[in-house]
From TrEMBL:
Gene Ontology terms, MF aspect: triacylglycerol lipase activity
A Pfam cross-reference name: Lipase_3
The protein's name: Alpha/Beta hydrolase protein
Regions that span the bilayer: 47-70, 362-383
Domain Fungal lipase-type: 360-463
InterPro entries per UniProt: AB_hydrolase_fold, Fungal_lipase-type, OBL-like
GO terms (BP aspect): lipid metabolic process
UniProt keyword list: Hydrolase, Membrane, Transmembrane, Transmembrane helix
Length: 577
């Protein structure tokens, strides 16, 4: 008998389960000691977290005025001098039509047991590098790489999380590349340094995750903070407490019905059933802009129209009581409701419409901060496959498996992201081959975490004291010290300096680090004499610091690409011989 299938229990078993036979009026000392122990460790944990947060806060407060002066100078220099990496030109030479066909086959094959592939890893690393580039560079590169495959891109997101979606409707694949930390963006550095952990609200993830990385995605940190849709296939109830509400409606057919043509000026009525008796409405004008007809007072609103079906609902808030338009604003980021969850869902729907009846093959990648946000987003998609995760989130259930072929994630320079509960749950989903977590028509999900041997970012947040601090007590009542309870996700692939070695499915160790340190220091004179200006600069730094500068230089996405390219060349030579 399954202990959690209570519906199948006998009535007598349900009666005896947890039954209290008598009340003891005296102290249960073992229980009291356990509670004291729990309070003790909780207090220590709070003190440690408070100390860390105070140090981080103080450091950034001290840094801000200096950074403002530095950034003013850098902005002037950046406008005059823009250096474009030669990575894309080099990769373009590799992207022959024949190689594209081979790569597309790997991107779209529905396999169940796939080994680490250097071509796929290099492709994702180059796209991750492209995620950092300005729009004019991305336009040029996408056009250059297009070998009659209909390659296109779309960039979206917000401050702290920008995603470059590279796709081909013709070849039926899409890659979401999450941008990492920009070197001169102090806000993103602060996001990285915010090492406290928080629970992901509205059930979008199990366990606790890094507060900075989770917040960067823009997902809600409040329970049901946005409109709640009970089911994607029903009309919705929206509860508000503002004097003005505007609702952006994506109007379509009801499930199972064909789309009907709607007049752009058609009004969709929204009637308050509690509060003021005034009515409210919303219409689309001839230009397609949203015209708000707000109502005043506190009210719960129900979509009363039965003539249309609402595919998607996004809340937009405008202060004031006069009718206004939501107009386009010329800014780096298009305005939206501020919900990262709503944004991601909208873009997944956008993708589905782009691909029509096809089921696109979806890949995810990222570097640094982008690797962390890519990891959390991947976790959210995989969590949707569980019973608890299926209906999680503000906007209710989203059956991602019915719309996409979820293939895999490649991350580069990934910091630690979540706690033990999060990791163990995700590992179970990733490693289980049963239909419970892997639908039959879906490929086996790959999660490759590529690590340069001396990349220091892959070791943060640190877990210095190991298992004692993260698991000091096995009892369920005593919490772990969460300060050190940070973990990675995915299969580790460790790369040595310029392709000197590759270790699979094992975390890097002190032997790897020391070996890499010596290799970088010894190789410095060679790269000084033979390398480019950038190589010469790195060589001087490496030699003068006895290879220690590699702890930072190894985090550069360019180093990841170079290591993968050298390994690819070595593999090609070995196959020829």
């Amino acid at each position: 008998m399954d202990e959690h299938q209570y519906e199948d229990w006998e009535t007598s078993d349900l009666e005896r389960y947890g039954q209290v036979k008598y009340l003891d009026p005296f102290t249960n000392f073992p229980l009291l000691l356990s509670e004291l122990k729990t309070t003790y460790w909780g207090t220590i944990d709070s003190i440690l977290w408070s100390t860390v947060n105070l140090v981080v806060f103080s450091a950034f407060c001290w840094l801000v005025p200096f950074w403002m002066v530095l950034e003013f100078t850098l902005r002037i220099a950046y406008k005059k001098i823009q250096i474009t990496s030669d990575v894309y030109d080099k990769y373009d030479k590799k992207l022959t039509k024949k190689f594209w066909r081979q790569l597309i086959k790997k991107l779209t094959q529905n396999t169940q047991d796939v080994p680490f592939d250097l071509d796929l890893a290099e492709f994702h690393a180059v796209l991750t590098s492209l995620a950092y580039e300005p729009v004019n560079v991305v336009d040029k590169v996408i056009d250059m790489w297009n070998r009659d495959i209909g390659l296109a891109y779309h960039r979206f997101g917000h401050e702290g999380c920008v995603i470059t979606m590279v796709y081909s409707v013709q070849e039926n694949f899409v890659v979401l590349a999450f941008k990492g930390t920009s070197v001169f963006n102090l806000t993103e550095w602060f996001t990285d340094a915010t090492t406290r952990k928080i629970p992901a609200k509205n059930g979008v993830l199990p366990g606790l995750v890094h507060a900075g990385f989770y917040s960067a995605l823009g997902f809600s940190t409040r329970s049901k903070a946005m409109p709640h849709i009970q089911d994607e296939n029903t009309l919705v109830t929206i509860t508000k407490k503002n004097d003005v509400d505007v609702i952006n409606l994506d109007v379509g057919a009801r499930p199972g019905e064909e789309d009907e043509e709607h007049d752009e000026s058609e009004e969709i009525s929204i009637t308050p059933f509690r509060g003021d008796e005034e009515s409210a409405g919303l219409s689309l004008d001839e230009s397609g802009e949203i015209v708000a007809i707000p109502f005043k007072g506190e009210a719960s609103c129900m979509v009363a129209s039965t003539s249309v079906y609402l595919d998607d609902v996004t809340a937009v808030r405008i202060n004031g009581v006069e009718s206004r338009k939501v107009k386009h604003i010329d800014a780096p980021y298009e305005k939206y409701d501020g919900s990262g969850e709503g944004l991601m869902k909208a873009k997944l729907i956008y993708l589905k419409r782009k691909f029509g009846k096809q089921i696109p093959h979806l890949w995810i990648t990222g570097h640094s901060l982008g690797a962390a946000t890519a990891t959390i987003f991947t976790s959210m998609l995989l969590w949707k496959r569980t019973k608890r995760g299926r209906t999680s989130g503000i906007y209710g259930g989203l059956n991602i498996d019915s719309g996409f072929k979820l293939h895999g994630t490649f991350t580069f320079g990934n910091p630690r992201v979540g706690d033990t509960d999060w990791k163990e749950t995700m590992d179970m989903i990733l490693k289980t081959t049963s239909d419970q977590y892997q639908p039959k028509d879906q490929p086996k999900y790959q999660f490759w975490r590529v690590v340069n041997s001396n990349d220091i970012v892959c070791s943060v947040p640190p877990t210095t004291l190991g298992s004692f601090l993260s698991r000091h007590d096995k009892s369920s009542r005593a919490p772990a010290l969460t300060l050190n309870d940070f973990h990675h996700l995915g299969t580790s692939v460790t790369l040595g300096y310029h392709g000197s070695f590759k270790n699979m499915d094992e975390e890097r160790n002190i032997h790897n680090v020391l070996r890499n340190l010596v290799k970088e220091w010894v190789s410095a004179p060679v790269y000084f004499w033979r390398g480019s200006l950038l190589d010469k600069t790195k060589a001087i730094l490496n030699f003068s610091t006895f290879g220690m500068s590699g702890f930072l230089l190894d985090h550069d996405i360019g180093e990841y690409i170079k290591n993968l390219q050298i390994l690819n060349e070595k593999n090609a030579q070995s196959h020829k011989s």
